[in-house]
Design a protein that fits this description.
Layout: E1 3-8, E2 23-24, E3 27-28, H1 30-40, E4 45-49, H2 53-62, H3 81-96, E5 102-106, H4 115-128, E6 132-138, E7 147-149, E8 156-158, E9 175-177, E10 181-185, H5 186-192, E11 200-204, H6 216-229
Parallel strand pairs: 1-4, 1-5, 6-11
Antiparallel strand pairs: 2-3, 5-10, 6-9, 6-10, 7-8
Enzyme class: transferase
Protein name: Pseudaminic acid cytidylyltransferase
EC number: 2.7.7.81
Length: 230
């Protein structure tokens, strides 16, 4: 089985400038994703998909490959992760005559990704014959009790009013994607053009093991969580 790790790292970032290579506890944040992929020993190819020469240079220094730069079409604000991955797979096939059985899309701003977690997800995908596997976590509060708030009147209503009188212990657990990585069988990705398929599984993480990073507050919280885990 041939496996490729694809780390998307676009140059443009509006909310946090240079987000993908910003210093995170002493290292460019992309360093952690690259080193986790290399350290897992699972990949024939660890590559970074970027449109930015500085990101490409740092990625190569850490040990990743950047065999080609991302196109303008997959570098704008409207390109999806699926668009980026398809371009990578197509370029490997047309330019380098290389094809892969499995891919792992690892996000550049996911410093909590570890070689062990990549292995656990990969083993689960093979054991259960899933098309894809990714980390997810339980919501800390039942989402069936979610509220709508009218922006003009500030009045509140239930999103799911049928759960108004249901005891919290009787409400089923709900999960959310942790935004770290996705293992996907290439034929499954080609079939569904997505990382989440009708035959996907998860490895469960607790709230200290991940952090979505979109704001300065998120960044600080991620550093605190990372130090806590160490």
């Amino acid at each position: 089985m041939k496996n490729i790790a694809i780390i998307p790292a676009r140059g443009g970032s509006k909310r946090i400038p240079q987000k993908n290579i910003r210093n995170f506890l002493g290292k460019p944040i992309i360093h952690y994703a690259i080193q986790a992929a290399i350290g897992s020993g699972l990949f024939d190819e660890v590559m970074v998909s970027t449109d930015d020469e500085e990101i490409a240079s740092i990625a190569k220094e850490v040990g990743a490959k950047v065999p080609f730069l991302r196109s303008a079409k997959t570098s704008d604000d409207y390109a999806t992760i699926a668009d980026v991955i398809k371009e990578v797979l197509d370029n490997y096939k047309s330019r380098l005559n290389l094809e892969f059985d499995n891919l792992c899309c690892i996000f550049a701003t996911a410093p909590f990704t570890t070689p062990e977690r990549l292995k656990s997800a990969y083993d689960l995908m093979n054991e259960k014959k899933y098309l894809s596997v990714f980390p997810a976590s339980r919501f800390s509060y039942p989402i069936m009790r979610a509220l709508n708030v009218d922006s003009s009147t500030n009045k509140v209503s239930m999103v799911w009013p049928e759960y108004m009188q249901t005891r919290t212990q009787d409400i089923p657990d709900a999960y959310h994607d942790c935004g770290q990585f996705y293992w996907v069988r290439v034929y499954g990705f080609r079939t569904h053009n997505a990382l989440f398929t009708p035959n996907s599984g998860i490895i469960e993480l607790n709230f200290t093991e991940f952090q979505d990073i979109d704001t300065e507050e998120d960044w600080k919280l991620a550093e605190l969580k990372y130090e806590l885990n160490k």
